[in-house]
Amino acid sequence: MSLSEVYGGLVSAEQIRSANGVDAENPLASGESLSGDELTRIAEEYGVTFGNLEIINGLGQPQIDPGDILAIPLAACSSANLNWYNESLIVPNGPYALTANNCIKCGCRPTDLSLECSPSGIVDKCSHLQCKDSNIFIGERHENHTTSGCNVIACIYRGHLGGKIFRW
């Protein structure tokens, strides 16, 4: 049985050769195995540490074998240390989460793994999106540069309760 047949014909022999770098210059003999992937390369690809991959998967060696299944930890942001009202949110790096009756969209900033929230724009009837005594809305920030320094004003989402959105 060919490798293509093992996978139910979902991939062609050519796709398997291409994915594994097998060609006329680098042939693979029948019965020969490809060497396993390196954890260091996988860690780099997914932005995690080699040590975390090794610990999470209980591995004692840097090389894995073809067919091995690995758990890859994803970086995520949490609201746990933000003192939000009546809400706890964890968002993986990449996608976003909707909260406050879909009025607020929060994403995880990849540079420092901090939550960044703004109006979602998908619900028309959202109140309390503008910060008190200012012209800015949740997620916005303004910098005022002067000769004596820089003044930063930001409108930050702080959770929700009973239809009310808290901001600071």
From TrEMBL:
<protein>
    <recommendedName>
        <fullName>LysM domain-containing protein</fullName>
    </recommendedName>
</protein>
<feature type="domain" description="LysM">
    <location>
        <begin position="35"/>
        <end position="73"/>
    </location>
</feature>
<dbReference type="Pfam" id="PF01476">
    <property type="entry name" value="LysM"/>
</dbReference>
<dbReference type="InterPro" id="IPR036779">
    <property type="entry name" value="LysM_dom_sf"/>
</dbReference>
<dbReference type="InterPro" id="IPR018392">
    <property type="entry name" value="LysM"/>
</dbReference>
